[in-house]
Amino acid sequence: MSNRSNAALLLMDVQNAIAGRYADAAGADVLHPFRRALEAARNRGIPVIFVRLAFREGYPEISPRNKMFSRVADAWGAMSPADFGAQIHEAVQPLPVEPIVTKLRVSAFVGSDLEVILRSRGIDTLILSGIATSGVVLSTLREAADKDYALTVLSDACLDADPEVHRVLVEKVFPRQADVLTVDAWIDALD
C-alpha cells in the first residue's frame, strides 16, 4: 500500500436512504465494519471523504431514459442535499473537517468535485467502502483505476442486496484492479 499521507478512505453512499434499508433489513449492526474503518483511518491520520447521492429539487439531473435513476423519487423519497435521505447515516457521522462529496450518478466521480479534492490533497491511493458493491463501489473502482489511482477495497465494508454478486465482485472482479482486504486485515497492514 502507498504512503498513508497519499491515501484517503472513501465512505460511499452510506446515507440514510441507502444504508437505512440494509441496516433495517438485516436487523444487525451491518455498519460496524464501516465504523471500524472510519475509526482506524481517523486514528492514523488518513483523510476520510464521504460520498453521497443527491439531486436538486425536482430532479432536473435525472433523465427519464436512465433506467436506474428515473425511479429514484419512488424508491428513496426526497433526495435533495438537505433531505434526510441524503444525510450520512448516524452510525458513521462525518467530522466538520471531513468533506461530503455530492455525486449525481453511480460513480463517486460523476457530477462531483471528488477529483478536485483528491488532487488538491495529493491523494493517489483510495480505500473504497460503500453501498452497494455492484453500484458505487464497482463504478468508482473502474473509473479510479482508469485514472491511475492505487486501490484497496474493504470487502466487509461493502454491502450489496445480492450476496452472490458481492462475492463474485470481491473475489473475482475487484482483485484485477485493487487489493481486496477485510477491514481487520487493512488495519493490521497499517500497523
TrEMBL record:
Coiled coil: none
Domain Isochorismatase-like: 7-184
One Pfam family per UniProt: Isochorismatase
Domain of life assignment: Bacteria
Single GO term (MF): hydrolase activity
Swiss-Prot/TrEMBL keywords: Hydrolase
Keyword DNA repair: no
N-terminal signal peptide: none
Name the record gives this protein: Cysteine hydrolase family protein
